[in-house]
Write a structure and sequence with these properties.
About 70% of the residues lie in helices and about 0% in strands. It is mostly helical. α3 packs across α4 and α3 (about 45-60) packs across α5 (about 85-90).
Length: about 100
């Protein structure tokens, strides 16, 4: 069953992903989010979710734009999973790696 899931992802999901580079504002948001993730030792998905809202508030940005940037730049899709749940499932370290990749020139 796992092999079928991997094949499905490779055949139908991966080819449709469209990653884009982050804008300057998005890079600032991602750097802030990266710092917040690094400073957080917990695993509460609601607190992880709230980080994105905190980043948006600190930047004076619409939270919807921050979430959209996460989906498009980090995940290569227009919509995605709830950030807190995603970060809890894949781990803060993996999310930090995705943010690092987005922050790289």
């Amino acid at each position: 069953m796992i092999l079928s899931a991997v094949r499905y992802f490779q055949d139908f999901i991966a080819p449709n992903k469209k990653y884009r580079p982050a804008t300057e504002d998005e890079r600032k948001w991602f750097a802030d989010l990266r710092g917040r993730l690094a400073a957080y030792a917990g695993t509460d998905e609601n607190e992880l979710q709230a980080m994105v809202f905190d980043v948006a508030k600190a930047a004076g940005a619409d939270a919807r734009l921050v979430f959209k940037a996460i989906y498009e730049v980090l995940l290569g899709q227009e919509r995605g999973p709830r950030f807190g749940t995603f970060a809890k499932l894949v781990g803060r370290e993996r999310v930090a790696q995705l943010l690092d990749r987005a922050l790289s020139p």
